[in-house]
Amino acid sequence: MYYKTLNNNVKMPQLGFGVFQTPVDETKRVVLDAIEVGYRSFDTAQIYGNEAGVGEAILESGLSREEFFITTKIWISNAGYEKAKDSIEKSLKKLQTDYIDLLLVHQPFGDYYGTYRAMEEAYKAGQVRAIGVSNFSPNRFIDLQYFVEIKPAINQIETHVFYQQKEAKKYLEKYNCQIESWGPFAEGKNDFFNTPLLKEIGEKHGKSVAQVALRFLLQSNVVVIPKSVRKERMQENFDIFDFELTEDEMKSIEELDQGSTLFHNHQEPETAERFLSFLS
């Protein structure tokens, strides 16, 4: 396993496992399968509704809590100091743990400054080991980090071969914040799994398109959290440490970048209205 050292010296596995859209009644089984494969970093969120399943699986695994790195995120409906503070306690109970390894503001809408203050408080109290944000564009990220005491350790944003976040990465590196990818396979958009270049490179290494895509992100210093409910796919996504892409291969994959989102443009008014509807 590779690790990234965050800006407060906490070490985070560079390859983790996401449970976005994992059915609540399947989460425990899925996470237990992932643990058996070798994953130790798990990413959930309040809005996913499956924090409890993650916590149950970790307890049932029989492994010590210290072996795991758990991430969760505070949703918009819990934005603001008081609501966020209460939601952190609820997440701890659902996860059945005394501390969360990484806690993120899930979306850059609502009173995320108040949310962040509650997160800083939890960090100082030892309930959280690292704090950060998710889906923050460079301008919102820069504004936030200028006015907080504890600088964001992570910005989890859409990152894949078609949207490599080159501009965002430049500013995250400047402010010593680690980039983390959600949607490393672009959720199959643009016929992702049939991308000719990734297939060609994969054939040279005896690897799949998914493995090449993940390896590209690892070598680009990105933290990744692929997801699957199938154990064989979990294993495939985990088997990316026994090969390395050449410099030429990396450069050719970089040319796949389209420079724009395939999902939500967080700077568009329609996106803000859609996410802020969760407050009503």
From TrEMBL:
Residues 21-257 form the NADP-dependent oxidoreductase domain. PANTHER family: 2,5-DIKETO-D-GLUCONIC ACID REDUCTASE, NADP-DEPENDENT OXIDOREDUCTASE DOMAIN-CONTAINING PROTEIN. Coiled coil: none annotated. The lineage of its organism: Bacteria, Bacillati, Bacillota, Bacilli, Lactobacillales. It holds the Pfam family Aldo_ket_red. This is Glyoxal reductase. Its EC number is 1.1.1.-, 1.1.1.283. Belongs to the aldo/keto reductase family. The active site is at Y48. It comes from Streptococcus infantis SK1076. One of its GO terms (molecular function) is methylglyoxal reductase (NADPH) activity. Keywords: NADP, Oxidoreductase. The keyword Oxidoreductase applies. Substrate binds at H106.
